[in-house]
Amino acid sequence: MNYNMISYVLGSLLRIEGILMSIPMVLAFVYGESAAQKAFLITVVVCLALGTLIRHKEPENKSIYGREGFVVVALSWIVMSLFGALPFYLSGAINGFINCFFETVSGFTTTGASILTEIEGLPMSILFWRSFTHWIGGMGILVFMLAILPMGDERSMYLMKAEAPGPMVSKLVPKVKSTAKLLYKIYIALTVIEMVLLLLGGMPLFDSVVNSFSTAGTGGFAILNSSIAGYNNAYYEYVITIFMLLFGVNFNLYYLMILRDFKSIWKNEELRYYVVIVVACIVLITGNIYSMYPTFESAFRHAAFQVAAIVTTTGFATANFDLWPEFSKTLIFCLTILGACAGSTGGGIKVSRLIILLKLAYREIRHIVHPRSVNLIKLDGYKVEEDVVRGVTGYIVVYVLLLLGSFILISFDNYDFTTSLTSVITCLGNVGPGFAMVGPVENFSFFSGFSKLVLCFDMLVGRLEIFPIIMLFAPSIWRKSYM
Questions:
Q1: From residue 20, how far is each of 26, 78, 132, 186 by CA, in Å?
Q2: How confident is the model at residue 373 (pLDDT cuts 50, 70, 90)?
Q3: CB–CB of 18/43 below 8 Å?
Q4: Sign of torsion, CA 123 129 135 138?
Q5: For residue 381, is pLDDT > 70?
Q6: CA nearest 63: which of 118, 145, 144, 5?
Q7: What are phi and psi of 383, to 5 degrees?
Q8: What's the pLDDT band for 413 if we cut at 50, 70, 90?
Q9: 101-to-106, 233, 426 alpha-carbon distances in Å
């Protein structure tokens, strides 16, 4: 284990967080928010000073391999969340450090679950930082660092593999650094386009910026107590619906679009499944809730918005879907588990994993019927390697075990079955709203401190796709060499 390189990367990350936090610090001075000014200033100084101290000397051995990659990624998200919680705590905007940590983890992991009961009274700079954490975490903390820091591809690829969502990770261009830069250019471009469209519709500048941050990161932190429903504006809802779905698509496809390789885009099975699932759920839910709304358009709009918000794990709300018929709620529940595409900013188990599991089941059935037949699992016309298939099945097994374990731990709070189960599922999937007491118009403030920490663990595990966080608890990972 290369401890010097791990500390060097963590130090660099702390400095980056301090620099990023200077943006809301400036806003605190602009808006004259004295408590927030002091909180951000202290945190920025601490992050910059500690980060500089940790990385003052560049290590001679800069090797980062598989296990270092997992450890660096896991520790990076924990450290970013711990220091990112300080402005909430020091400003007094949120009471109790566990609550501050919960809100920050929810922000960086783009979950959107909140312990806040009153949002609109918070300082503007705090609201900005809260949504900005979504944007930072959306594409990935380490991906951002790879885009701006000089690190060799032989080291950085392991970091990207450990952080990137989905069963398979590929470089868009030969160099990892160039790939990270390209991903962020696309990410920034889509974010700016959404901001402009919301501005053109009459949304205030500040609201346009923070809502675009939350949409881009598929997080769902809103600045109104009633989320996007508070604007009561159909144009805003349609714009945000479209961009939630766009951010739920694999970003590799946008690169192919730039190259005008439309054939490869259409060939992408995950995209086709994603579109079919979204369209089918919108149509079915619209038909199911039609009688609850005055017009067909309003039923369609709310159905489309909530399907997009849940399948992309954004978590915004324009309606309390907990009051919808059971059929619609069941579809929403299934989307909560599924999530968006691999390589997107969305969470969940990912559409590509579902496809691989379906094809694996089909292969096993064919093998039973025809024992001597050779059946390859293919995705987009290419063979899926057995280690990828094994990784998918392993992921699902561990996912279920974590879900059950967390559910049992949460049950000590003695809340109803639906609340306890969906709170774990929505945090593991980085979705945000669940059902019952954690529904779209509710929050997570009532949970005990212990349960909140369990849910924080679930959010981190879900965002990093389980294994980086789990590997921190393996004693062998910390040894200088493998046995």
A1: 11, 17, 9, 20
A2: confident
A3: yes
A4: negative
A5: yes
A6: 5
A7: -65, 135
A8: very high
A9: 8, 33, 18
